[in-house]
Known about the structure:
Layout (H helix, E strand, L loop, with lengths): L23 H11 L4 H31 L6 H24 L2 H42 L17 H7 L25
Helix pairs in contact: 1-2, 2-3, 3-4
Amino acid sequence: MERRRLPCDRPGGEPLPVDVEPGPGYVQQGLDAVFPGLGPTFIAIALGFFVFTTIVAYYYMAEVNLNYLTRKMKNRVLARAMLRLLQALVLIAVAYGAVNTAGAAWGMGDIGVGSMAWLNIVGILFLQGPALKALKDFREQKKAGLDPQFDPRKLGIEGATFWELRADGHVLQGKSGGELPPEQLGIDTTKS
């Protein structure tokens, strides 16, 4: 009985090797089966883009969050030192991942994603107070038959400048980038 050809077979009809683990190697073998010689090149380029964009995105998120957390620190030297420490940690992680096995690099990535998830959970716990206040205010306005409008000052939420301007009617609703010109807000733009 002749073996039926499967879509994952190589052009000559032989099956893909079963000793290849699922992952980049398996995709590489699959591409090689259809386009001989293309598999390693494609996987190298795709992983290069994936790794580069992931590192840039995670570093950006980490730096922005660190800047936010240190924004009110009086000791700017310490804030800069913390930023340099973050940069050093990223460089060490990249170097470690470059010279170790793929499993070690993925494990390090898993630790990073897990840490970020836990920090986000802690952040959500801190933000639940203002969020619940806003939800309560929304429901009260709906119950009163109003078109709900968010005003952070009524709820004791500080630092929400955009929403304060919007509540005062200085930001046009429903338009992308719809802030009024500085002159209409009473801001003198002639001073430098």
